[in-house]
Amino acid sequence: MTLKIEIENGLELRLFDLQYAEILTNKVLSNHNHLKDWLPWATKSYSVDSATNFVRFSLAAFAKGEAIPMWVFSGEDLIGSVGFNRIESETGLGEIGYWLASDFEGRGIVTKGCSKLIAYAFENTHLRKAVIRCAADNLKSRAVPTRLGFTEESLVLDGEWIHDKSVDLVIYSLSREEHFLRGNR
User: Fold this and answer.
1) Rg of the Cα atoms in the chain
2) Less Cβ crowding at N or C end of the chain, within 10 Å?
3) Which of 148, 17, 139, 13 is nearest to 80 (CA)?
4) What pLDDT does 40 receive?
5) Which 3 state secondary structure label does DSSP give 89?
């Protein structure tokens, strides 16, 4: 299946595809220093096999309605990912994850991509609530749910282990009702 969601002129979300595993690997490795502090999977040993396994797992979850894994493309350049990493079928809770190559930061791409993805998910799936978990010290990442009107729900001390350290997580959420009450379509 091909799924594309336009973010704005020249930018779009595209469903994961195995043909991009090598490109993903190169993008992650070239952005390792930028990603490593916040993403446990961003290691110097990230490989085409790692990327292929991740894409296969994500596409299998998508086929079951348990994820919406999307790349971010600028033209034909894969520049990151914005997706629902998991959607719980019983509760309707979906967790959004995102990352972007360093040279594309600061343009609102992740915020706009999340907005489009959330609208798609609320309109086309059983999603009841979108959740974003951010490292408490990752201020750029935390700005995304704030700009999108998410509610800060909780702080989880020592919520995630990233490489050699424990980090606190801030949990944000946006319900289907809140989304539509704000006039989002």
Assistant:
1) 16
2) N
3) 13
4) 86
5) coil
Q: Mean pLDDT throughout 114-133?
A: 96
The DSSP H or E segment spanning 84 is strand 77-87
Q: What is the pLDDT of residues 69-98, one digit of tens each?
A: 999 999 999 999 999 999 998 999 999 999
Q: Which amino acid is at 49?
A: D
Residues contacting residue 143 through CB under 8 Å, at least 6 positions apart = 111
Average pLDDT of the segment spanning 97-102? 96
DSSP secondary structure string, 91-116?
T-EEEEEEEE-GGGTTSSHHHHHHHH
What span, in angstroms and rounded, lies between the C-alpha atoms of 159 and 113? Answer: 26
184 phi, psi to nearest 5 deg: -75, 140
Q: To the nearest whole number, what is the mean pLDDT of the chain? A: 94
pTM above 0.85, yes or no: yes
| Terminal-residue alpha carbon distance, the chain | 23
Counted residue by residue, the chain has a size of: 185
Which has the closest alpha carbon to 72: 2, 129, 1, 16? 16
Q: Side chain identity at 120, as an amino acid letter?
A: Y
- Run of H or E residues at 26: helix 21-30
